[in-house]
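Problem: given the chain below (213 residues), write out its structure.
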Amino acid sequence: MKSFSKNKTVLALLLSTAFASGQVHAEQDSSVEHDLSGEWGFTVTASAIGIDSEAAAKEGISDSAYTIGLTMDYVKNSWITTFGFDLAVYDDENEFSQDVVGTGLYNDGDRETKSSSANGAIFSIASGYQKLYGENQDTAVNMQAGFSIVGFSERSISTCTDCRSEDIDIDGGAFVKLSAVKSGEKFSVGAYIQQYISGDLGTAVGVQIGSRF
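Solution.
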C-alpha cells in the first residue's frame, strides 16, 4: 500500500469533513430554490497536480504535472454534479528521439529527428453540495466527492503513426474537491483544491473560468 504524507492525510480529512457538513446543510435547505437550479454550464480549468513519487519514478516522469481541462456542470437546487476531462502534461524524465520520415500532400519524404512528449487524459465525475453567498447569491462554495480514470497515458511522438510509444501507468482514484466561484453576468471565475485519497495522483490546485447556459 502506498504511503501518504501527513499533510496530505490531514487535508483529505478536512475536505471530507467539509463535504459531510455540506450534506447536512443541503438537507436543511432542501426546500430552498436558487436561481441556478436546473442549469448546465461549462468551465475551462488549469491546474498543477502532484503524482505519487514511487509511481512517477517507476514510469520515468516527475512527481508533478500540469493539466488543462473542460468540465460540464449541472446545478439543481443546492447540488452540483461535474463531468470533467483533463489533458495532463507530464514532466518527462525518459524522453527519447527518433528519425521521422514525412508523409502527406505537402511533404515529399523529408527526414527530421523528433523528440517524444508524455501526456495523459483524466476523465472524472464528481457531485456534492453548493452553498451560495452574497447579497446577489453570486458567490458559490462547492464541496464535492468524485472518482477519476486516467486514459491513454503514454510517452510518444505526436503526428507520427509508426513511431515508438511507451505506456505510462498512472492510476486515478477517489478524490474530494473544494472550490470557490464568483459569478458575473456572463462568466464566472474561481479557484479550487482537489485532494486524491486513492490511486497515484495527489493534490491539485487550479483556477477556472466558466459560463452557464
